[in-house]
Design brief:
- Keywords: Signal.
- It is globular, with a radius of gyration of 23 Å.
- The longest helix has 46 residues.
- Strand 3 and strand 4 form a beta hairpin.
- It has three helices and 16 strands.
- With 308 residues, the chain is of the alpha+beta class.
- The strands form three sheets. Strands 5, 6, 7, 8, 9 and 12 form a six-stranded antiparallel sheet that branches. It has a six-stranded mixed sheet with strand order 11-10-16-15-14-13, with no helix packed on it.
C-alpha cells in the first residue's frame, strides 16, 4: 500500500466518522424533540385538566415517557424547554440537574414527582427517581432522607456550597393544602455518589435545622431568594394576624420585614430584620423574574385552556 493510498483511506475513514457523528447527533435531536412534544402535551394535561383522574392518568403516562427520553444518549444537554409544567434546574457546576413537578389532588393538596439526572462522561443515563414521602415525614426539619423518601418540592434554584462536605441548597415551592402553601430550603449532598437530602447546616433561634420549611396562608405570596453577591438567602418574615392565631401557620403572612440565612464557614446563620435597601434587586428566579408559582400558573392556564 502506497503512502498516498493510505492517506486516502484515512481521509475516507475520518469523513465517514464525521458523517456518522453528525447523523447520530441529528437522530438523537429528532428523537428528543419527538419526546419533548409528547411530554409537553401530557404535562399540560396533568397540570391544567380539571378532572382529577385525567390529571393523574396524564402523569402516569408522562413518567415512562420522560424516562424513555432521558435514556437517549446525551439527553442531559437537552433542555426540554417546551415542557412548561416541569421545572428543570441544573447545578452551577454542571454535575447534575433536577427535574421536578407536581400534580394537584382532588382535595387541593399536591403530590410531587422528580428525578436527579447526573451528567455522565459517556452521555449514558444515570438518574435517581424522587419519590414523595412527605405525608410520612413527621419532623421534616430534623429528618435526613434519600431519594426514595423525598420531602417533595418543585425546585427553582440550586446553590452550591464548598464546605468540608460539599453540598447544594435547594430552594423550592411545595404547595400544601387549600388553606396554606409551603416553601422549603432543602439540602442535597452525595454519599458514595448517591443523593441524600437534609443536612444540619441551618443555625438559628436556638436550633439547628436539616432543612427549613415555611408555611403561610395560601392567598398570599412569599419572597424566598438567594443573593449570590452576599452569600445570603433572604425571605419574608411571616407572622400571624394576631396572637390568637400563633399556632395556625395557615393564617400567616408577610409583615413587610425580612430575615435571612447568611453563609459563613459552610453553614447558614439566621439573620433577623434585614435592611432590604442594601440588597440588590437582581433578576433571581424566586423574585418572580423567570419563576412562576406553579399554583398561580395552573389557575391562569385553567382559565385559558379548554377542557376536552
Amino acid at each position: 500500500m502506497t503512502k498516498k493510498t493510505a492517506l486516502t483511506i484515512l481521509s475516507l475513514l475520518l469523513c465517514l466518522q464525521t458523517f456518522a457523528q453528525h447523523t447520530g447527533d441529528a437522530g438523537r435531536l429528532k428523537r428528543l424533540t419527538m419526546f419533548e412534544d409528547s411530554l409537553a402535551h401530557l404535562s399540560n394535561k396533568m397540570v391544567n385538566d380539571e378532572n382529577d383522574m385525567e390529571r393523574k392518568n396524564a402523569n402516569y403516562k408522562f413518567i415512562p415517557t420522560l424516562v424513555q427520553a432521558l435514556r437517549t444518549d446525551n439527553s442531559f444537554a437537552f433542555p426540554f424547554d417546551s415542557v412548561k409544567a416541569v421545572t428543570i434546574v441544573k447545578s452551577p457546576d454542571n454535575r447534575f440537574r433536577i427535574i421536578s413537578w407536581h400534580v394537584m389532588n382532588l382535595d387541593g393538596s399536591y403530590r410531587f414527582y422528580g428525578t436527579v439526572q447526573m451528567n455522565t462522561p459517556t452521555g449514558e443515563l444515570k438518574m435517581y427517581p424522587l419519590e414523595d414521602y412527605s405525608p410520612l415525614i413527621k419532623n421534616p426539619e430534623d429528618t435526613v432522607t434519600d431519594n426514595r423518601k423525598w420531602y417533595g418540592a418543585q425546585y427553582y434554584k440550586i446553590v452550591p456550597v464548598h464546605a468540608i462536605k460539599p453540598y447544594y441548597v435547594l430552594i423550592g415551592w411545595k404547595g400544601n393544602t387549600v388553606k396554606s402553601t409551603k416553601k422549603v430550603l432543602d439540602v442535597l449532598s452525595f454519599n458514595n455518589d448517591k443523593p441524600e437530602f437534609g443536612l444540619p447546616v441551618f443555625d438559628g433561634n436556638h436550633k439547628t435545622r436539616k432543612r427549613v420549611v415555611f408555611e403561610y396562608a395560601r392567598q398570599v405570596s412569599m419572597l424566598l431568594r438567594y443573593i449570590p453577591d452576599q452569600n445570603l438567602i433572604v425571605f419574608d418574615h411571616l407572622t400571624a394576624p394576631d396572637d390568637k392565631m400563633k399556632n395556625h401557620p395557615e393564617t400567616y403572612g408577610p409583615d413587610l420585614s425580612y430575615d435571612g440565612y447568611k453563609l459563613k464557614n459552610g453553614r447558614w446563620s439566621f439573620v433577623e430584620t434585614l435592611d432590604m435597601r442594601n440588597i440588590p434587586d437582581n433578576t433571581d428566579a424566586a423574585a418572580g423574574a423567570g419563576y412562576i408559582d406553579p399554583k398561580k400558573q395552573a389557575a391562569r392556564d385553567r382559565a385559558s385552556v379548554p377542557v376536552n
